[in-house]
Amino acid sequence: MSSERILAGDPNQKIKVPGLLGKLGQMTSIRDTEVLEQSLLRTLGPLLGVLDTALYRTDDQQNIIRVIHYHRSKMVEVDGVERMVERIEEVLNLADVPKDIIALTDNVRLLRKPCTRRQEAGVAVAYPIFGGNEVCGYFVFERDREVSPQEDTIIRGVLEVFSNYYALLDVSQRDRLTGLLNRQALESSFDRLWSLLSRPDSFDEHEAGRRDMPSGCYWLAVIDIDHFKSVNDTFGHMVGDEILLLVARLMSNTFRSTDLLYRYGGEEFVAIVSAENAAIAHNIFERVRLAVEAYSFPRVDKITISIGYAQIEPEILPVEVLSRADRSLYQAKQDGRNRIYDYQELVAAGVFKTQDYSDIELF
User: Fold this and answer.
1) In the sheet where 305-312 sits, what is the strand order?
2) Catalytic: 267?
3) Is the dihedral of CA 103, 107, 110, 115 positive or negative?
4) Rounded to an integer, what distance in angstroms lies between the CA atom of residue 331 and that of residue 340?
5) I need a labelling partner for 146 at 20 to 30 A (CA). Which of 4, 201, 231, 287 fits?
6) Is 61 helix (H, G, I), strand (E, B) or coil?
7) Which residues sit opposite 269 in a β-bridge?
8) What is the pLDDT of residue 196?
9) Helix or strand or coil: residue 196?
10) Is 153 helix (H, G, I), strand (E, B) or coil?
């Protein structure tokens, strides 16, 4: 029996089953959720004979928060040899997402099944991606014909493998108590973010997996629950764990969906946010501080947090930026807690005499 299957509706398109299994094997050998997302697009695009595919990610309220585009194109070398090159990029301005695609994904969300929408040159197709029993994203592509039953079976199978494996990877990058991203995920974010920031004007179409330079500036904050040791000593560790969980949820609900929040260890958290300037960054952290201050916690009643933050700069190593934010946090605690300090403002005010950083062991 042949190891190739011909897809109905397209006699020129063949799916090599061993090749597909090999791609699935490669996908499940990945240890990074974002690389896994890219691998999904690389697998299904050529499989369906399309040059462009996209992955739409949603938050807990099923609002689209991130879009990844995968594009293949044919390039002719100087010697006349043709080869395929690929590009992966992230759409950072969601206002650029076409309205007809938004309408299509809305249909998928409501019906919880694949949907199509007629286009001038063919059809746009969207499949739901499930996380547990909820729709957490969409796989979207456009081409000149409908999906055949055989193709539909293959797409569903690949998406199921992807979702199950993504869930396993996601669990490994989550703190067990709070559900926030953990130190392992923070390290991966450092590598990815600094790699992007170090290439503001370059994009190599031949290098797979590199995305466009994000707009705006980034800020890193170290956040600490004030007097947390006394909470544990007075009320016990069960109440302490409850406080950690409530503070984590308050912060998650107050930060924007595009911000990153990690449990760094104990009662400390790390946040990475994008902001056009220092004033906006300060306002973001101030909203979080006020949300925690205003909440009435069981048994303890009032809890506050202190925050120190610093701007992320590509020429400064992650460990240095983290150290600057940590020094600012320590100063906030020394000056009475329940406050926010910016490293650059402390330098300008002469509180920190130099911009030298202390050694800090991350991992």
Assistant:
1) 260-265, 268-275, 217-225, 305-312, 340-342
2) yes
3) negative
4) 9
5) 4
6) coil
7) 223, 263
8) 67
9) helix
10) helix
Give φ, ψ of 65 to 5 degrees: -120, -15
Joined together, the tokens standing for residue 14 give 């063949």
Q: Collapse the DSSP code of 141 into the 3-class scheme (helix H, G, I; strand E, B; otherwise coil) and give the result.
A: strand
Which residue among 34, 142, 242, 267 is the active-site one?
A: 267
Q: Rounded to 10 degrees, what is the CA torsion of 88, 93, 95, 96?
A: -40
Here the tokens at position 199 are 């290439």
Helix axis angle for 237-254 and 228-235, nearest 10°, is 140
What is the tens place of the pLDDT at every residue in 119-176? 888 899 999 999 878 899 999 999 999 999 999 999 999 999 999 988 888 888 899 9
Q: In what order do the strands lie in the sheet with 64-76?
A: 82-91, 64-76, 52-58, 134-143, 122-131, 115-119
Cα 322 to Cα 186: distance, rounded to the nearest angstrom: 11
Q: Which long-range contacts (CB under 8 A, 24 or more apart) does 334-340 make?
A: 337/226, 337/227, 337/304, 337/306, 338/226, 338/289, 338/293, 338/304, 338/305, 338/306, 339/289, 339/306, 339/307, 340/282, 340/285, 340/286, 340/289, 340/306, 340/307, 340/308, 340/309
204 exposure class (CB count in 10 Å sphere: 0-12, 13-18, 19+): exposed
Dihedrals phi, psi of 139, to nearest 5 degrees: -105, 125
d(CA 158, CA 20): 9
Assigned token pair, 146: 């409908």
pTM for this structure? 0.68
Instruction: Render pLDDT for 309-337 as a digit per residue (tens, 0 to 9).
Output: 999 988 889 999 999 999 999 999 999 99
Cα(78)–Cα(207) distance, rounded to whole angstroms? 19
Nearest residue to 49 via CA among 165, 119, 141, 169: 141
